[in-house]
Amino acid sequence: MRTFKSLSEQEILALAISLEEEDARIYDDFADAVQADYPATAKSLQQMRAEEDNHRHRLIDLYRQKFGDHIPLIRRHDVQGFVQRKPVWLVRPLGPAAVRKQVELMELETKQFYARALAKTTDAGIRQLLGDLAEEERKHQALAEELEAERKKTGVEEEEAAARKRLFVLQVVQPGLAGLMDGSVSTLAPLFAAAFATHKSWETFLVGLAAALGAGISMGFAEALSDDGSLTGRGRPLTRGIICGLMTAVGGLGHALPYLIPSFYSATALAVVVVVIELAVIAYIRHRYMDTPLVAAIWQVVIGGVLVFLTGILIGSS
């Protein structure tokens, strides 16, 4: 690995060309990552990518005038002092806030590079171009701040916040709610059937545990295999499957855990309280994120829960 001080003017120009090309491609990757959900941010990133391409062309033109057509491949990781960047595909999904933060860091680093390069060169033509590019990088930082202010003024920030909420509902709330409802409601029947059939806490707990874990695994696979998220925007199948499976297991375990209490009647009373709390939580989530009127959400959830609960009691008592 070379030190920056050891680079010649030819090598500095070659490195500058490589840096501008890399930054342009990163901006393009960022724009592609946010295009579907944040088109205003993507447009700004595409403009910055075009400017980086312009810088690269100007650097190449000067390099050819000074040193010919062969440009040695010198990259950031060949020179000490540069921050190593993670590939964009490793840090997806990206939101506009994370992208803007990364852009600010990139522009700051590029500005510092040109300042150091300017101090090390003596050729008038090279100094002029490096000075111009350093000034343009300073303007890039100001442009990023202006874009942020413009986002707030034009309402783009509110649109992006709404888009983030939609994605959160699609990718987290919906699979989580489906799992919680299935785990909380569908496991009521086997749990309370076992409870009233045996009147034994431990055996009832084992049935509840098996029902919760079995439902969690089943729901997790079903959600993960439902679609790949490419058209629906519902995110990665594995992530949705994990969320759905975990929430299903949590919903089932909630009213199974009270049966760790040796006293059957105490455990059953506590389990009923837990069921009421679970149904209330489900109703609130439906009201909060699914735009369901609170009374309607409570009515729908309670009716379903009570019917399943009574089914379990009737079967267990028969």
Based on the model shown, name its key terms.
0% strand; mainly alpha; 2 domains; single chain; 318 residues; Ferritin
Major beta-sheet overview: none
Kindly provide the radius of gyration, computed on alpha-carbon positions and rounded to a whole number of angstroms: 30 Å
Mean pLDDT: 81
What's the SSE pattern? HHHHHHHHHH
Global structural class: mainly alpha
Instruction: Compute the number of structural domains.
Output: 2
Shape: elongated
Strand share of the residues? under 5%
Number of strands: 0
Fold topology:
Layout: H1 9-34, H2 39-67, H3 96-120, H4 124-154, H5 156-186, H6 188-198, H7 201-224, H8 237-254, H9 264-289, H10 294-317
Explain what this protein looks like in three dimensions:
By secondary structure, this protein is mainly α. It has 10 helices and no strands. It has helices at residues 9-34, 39-67, 96-120, 124-154, 156-186, 188-198, 201-224, 237-254, 264-289, 294-317. The longest helix has 31 residues, at 124-154. The mean pLDDT is 81.
Short structural description:
With 318 residues, this protein is mainly alpha-helical.
